[in-house]
Amino acid sequence: MLMLENLSRRFGENTAVASANLEIPDGQMVGIIGRSGAGKSTLLKLLNRLTDPSDGKIVYAGTDIAQLKGRELREWRSDCAMIFQQFNLVGRLDVITNVLTGRLYTMPAWRSMTQTFTAHERAFAIQALDRLGMAHTALQRAETLSGGQQQRVAIARALAQEPKILLADEPIASLDPMNAKIVMDALRSINQQDGKTVICNLHTLDTARNYCDRIIGMSAGKIVFDGTPDLLTTDMAREIYGAEAEEFDEAATSTTLPDSEAVAALKEAAAHV
Ligand SMILES: Nc1ncnc2c1ncn2[C@@H]1O[C@H](COP(=O)(O)OP(=O)(O)OP(=O)(O)O)[C@@H](O)[C@H]1O
Fold first, then answer.
1. Which of 35, 41, 167, 174 to mutate to test the pocket of ligand 1 (most atoms within 8 A of CB)?
2. Using one digit for the tens of pLDDT, what is the confidence trace for 72-93?
3. What domains does the chain contain, in order, with CATH numbers?
């Protein structure tokens, strides 16, 4: 169980995350939605301590994560793998080396400095790539892959960390719909087959509805919705996405497109607010 207790992060006068309280049981797939600037990325960064809280607690299995330092903090970051919108691979390195860097967290310091990997670690990395359908690219330079392929490698790298929790910050925002589906299917399968907690920031409401057990809506740093997808009403979506959502709704009623097509198109547009 991951618990946030009155967790806040301020940047000067600006409160990016305002007193967040959440309990996330192990094995849940959670989608965080909200407008640009709502505080979604900051919340994820707080979870793996890429940024430090101004106030409050993050508790996992009884440990206050906000207090960790040194080796314990490194171990937490290893338990809590992060996937980014821009993949963050090292382009000039081959795919397998990129995946193996996911193991660096778990190695003794001398081995991580020399970056020597055992046969077992290499086999593990290939297995992770194979799971994402990417084993055949193991020896290719990462920069030669498409965006969708790079994101699959980034997920394999996260798996190589053997994390307890997978955090994904807009994992499909740079991808076309087909690759977005492949990446979201992969995250859902890791969640369901391995029982890992997956928490992802998502721009598209539909994606959150289709893939997540639970949706958290943020607005101006606050959690304004927390529930199952079926509880997320149009009114609530409007509160989360603000005025723009209303404009999209109004446009939906005046469009000449057939209803279902119009709604789908508008939802897609609203998703990118
Ligand atoms: N390092 C920082 N320094 C100052 N302000 C920051 C910093 N990081 C985030 N903020 C501010 O905190 C607020 C929340 O930002 P955050 O990136 O968490 O939002 P978001 O919901 O993830 O937005 P987006 O969907 O555009 O990524 C914004 O007002 C942003 O300007």
1. 41
2. 998 899 999 999 988 899 999 9
3. 2-241 (3.40.50.300), 242-273 (no CATH)
